[in-house]
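ESCALATION

Customer reports they have been waiting on this structure for their group meeting. Please prioritize. Original submission:
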Amino acid sequence: MVLYFITGNKHKFIQVKNLLAPQIQVEQLEMDLVEIQEINAKKIIEHKLIEAKKYHSGEFLVEDTSLYLDALNGLPGPLIKWFWNSLGPNGIYDLSKKIGGTSAKAVSIFGYSNGNEIKFFSGELDGEIAKPGKDDGFGWNRVFKPKGFDEVLSDMPFEQIIAIGMRKKALDKFKEYYLKK
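Update from on-call: job pushed to the front of the queue and completed.
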């Protein structure tokens, strides 16, 4: 059976496909779904999975990746896209320095639906907000430096990001579940 990963981001799809292959056949499904704005990432994912079922049949996988700044009590979380679009990399970096704390956490949550139930799988990566690196097409990768590393995600080799990343941690949990079902 094919698992459909709902995303318009080809970079995310490549990562997900590489992390699930060869045991799980995954295909990209581009759907223009309404994304509710919510501080709870699981509610965003659940809404997308319910909406997807209205337009397509099958098993679905949806991801929400959030960035939580400790000095902002966890904001922006799933709202990072809006912060990023408003402030940009230098603005996020400057904001974190001005509020007195650069500690942050990157979290990927995948939601899976077989059409009847929804399950969630998450992975986290502790780190800090740092001076912006190169643009790798993944937005805030430019300012997130994982704990124990000297550079932001966007300046790391792709293979290293995959190996240490929160997406891999979440997908490892999903893969274990999916292959046992």
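Sent to customer with the following note: The helical segments are 10-20, 41-55, 80-98, 158-164, 166-180.
Escalation resolved.
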